[in-house]
């Protein structure tokens, strides 16, 4: 698997892991190695509407931005939020790798870990994040209403009294019956729910940035693009842009275990009635991968233009991550590893002489407690044993 930044080196360009293929990966996590880096992963751009509400960079409006995320988008939002004077509140499923929560907290954001449930459940992490923004807006409206009723010296007294009450009655209306918690950003000047799954700023970021940079960096010689989907923003934006540039560029989905998108793309049916999320109260994904795979069609994914789909396994992802670490010095997370399995599959099907691109979207540093934990892998029968790429033929 040849990193994109090394494509001009003849010894790397001549042959990929499947023989005779030029395989490129847009990799934002190893920028010192790149000649041309992607300017934006797209994740931080999901909050673009929120940026417009928050005012210019550096303004301190102290509004809150909330998001439900398995980790990567939340890390991006937590990184950029302070620059726009925003507080960040992240709701994350508690089965996600714990180091993601630690990174988000280190960036100054509030992390709320919740049990994994179906998206139809009111306490799904996305639904809670949406509710947190609403709670912040309600609290902000109440504060503004109280402030407007004060004037002169009475304003100072009321303001002081209100400050003392913020941990009491002022939060009473924002409590969650299921958890007994209130919204920690409810003392902000309102809340904005980034809504990465349905917010089309996600798709647009990749249509306007990632897609064009892939086209430019491959000098228009790309034959195929393949990637997994979580929100669907990356694969939608990139595939639509590439198809506009050249209808012959083939775009494929790589789907992990437990996800229904493979069936949607290949058969037009999302899932069987027994697998419908409305009938499943537990976490619908039975996979070691995080941040990819879903059992519903998001607004972002609807924008994708795909020629087909592949289905990967946890073992393939684990083995591919170790292969790339040994052979290319790439320390990749589960999503990136699955993407590379997809690139190898496409290479096998297209044959020699094709340029295939995928996305390396997460570092192994975010997956130490599970994906790179020997004991965890052994307990799930996923201990890597391959010495090469023979696992692709199993």
TrEMBL record:
In which organism is this protein found? Brachypodium distachyon
Q: Where is the signal peptide?
A: none
- PANTHER family from the UniProt entry: CYSTATHIONINE BETA-SYNTHASE (PTHR10314)
What segments bear the compositional bias annotation Basic and acidic residues? 1-10, 39-65
InterPro entries tied to this protein = Cys_Synth/Cystath_Beta-Synth, TrpB-like_PALP, TrpB-like_PALP_sf
Where does this protein have compositionally biased stretches of type Basic residues?
Answer: 21-38
Q: Which intervals hold domain Tryptophan synthase beta chain-like PALP?
A: 55-362
**This protein's superkingdom?**
Eukaryota
Recorded hits in Pfam families, A to Z, give: PALP
Ranges for the region named Disordered are 1-71
| CDD domains for this protein | CBS_like (cd01561)
Its protein name is: Tryptophan synthase beta chain-like PALP domain-containing protein
Q: Which residues form a coiled coil?
A: none
């Amino acid at each position: 698997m040849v990193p994109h930044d090394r494509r001009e080196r003849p010894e790397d360009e001549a042959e990929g892991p499947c023989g005779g293929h030029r395989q490129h990966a847009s990799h934002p996590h190893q920028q010192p190695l790149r000649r041309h880096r992607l300017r934006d992963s797209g994740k931080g751009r999901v909050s673009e509407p929120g940026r417009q509400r928050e005012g210019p960079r550096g303004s301190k409006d102290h509004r809150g931005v909330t998001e439900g995320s398995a980790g990567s988008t939340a890390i991006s939002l937590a990184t950029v939020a302070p620059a726009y004077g925003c507080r960040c509140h992240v709701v994350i499923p508690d089965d996600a790798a714990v180091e993601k929560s630690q990174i988000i907290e280190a960036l100054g954001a509030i992390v709320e870990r919740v049990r994994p449930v179906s998206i139809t459940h009111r306490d799904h992490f996305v639904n809670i994040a949406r509710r947190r923004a609403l709670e912040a807006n309600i609290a902000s409206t109440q504060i503004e209403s109280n402030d407007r009723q004060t004037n002169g010296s009475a304003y100072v007294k009321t303001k002081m009294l209100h400050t003392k009450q913020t941990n009491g009655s002022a939060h009473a209306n924002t409590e969650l019956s299921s958890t007994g918690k209130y919204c920690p950003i409810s003392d902000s000047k309102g809340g904005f729910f980034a809504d990465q799954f349905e917010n089309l700023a996600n798709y647009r970021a990749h249509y306007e940035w990632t897609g064009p940079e892939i086209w430019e960096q491959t000098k228009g010689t790309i034959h195929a693009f393949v990637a997994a989907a979580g929100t669907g923003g990356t694969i939608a934006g990139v595939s639509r842009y590439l198809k506009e540039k050249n209808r012959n560029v083939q775009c494929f989905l790589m789907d992990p275990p437990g996800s229904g998108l493979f069936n949607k793309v290949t058969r037009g049916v999302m899932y069987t009635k027994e697998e419908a999320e409305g009938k499943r109260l537990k976490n619908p994904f039975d996979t070691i991968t995080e941040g990819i795979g879903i059992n519903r069609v998001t607004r972002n994914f609807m924008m994708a233009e795909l020629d087909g789909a592949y289905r990967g396994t946890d073992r393939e992802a684990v083995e591919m991550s170790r292969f790339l670490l040994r052979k290319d010095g790439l320390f990749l997370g589960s999503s990136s590893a699955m993407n590379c399995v997809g690139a190898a599959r496409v290479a096998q099907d297209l044959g020699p002489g094709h340029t295939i691109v995928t996305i390396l979207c997460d570092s192994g540093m975010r997956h130490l407690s599970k994906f790179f934990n020997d004991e965890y892998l052994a307990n799930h029968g996923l201990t890597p044993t391959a010495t090469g790429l023979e696992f692709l033929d199993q």
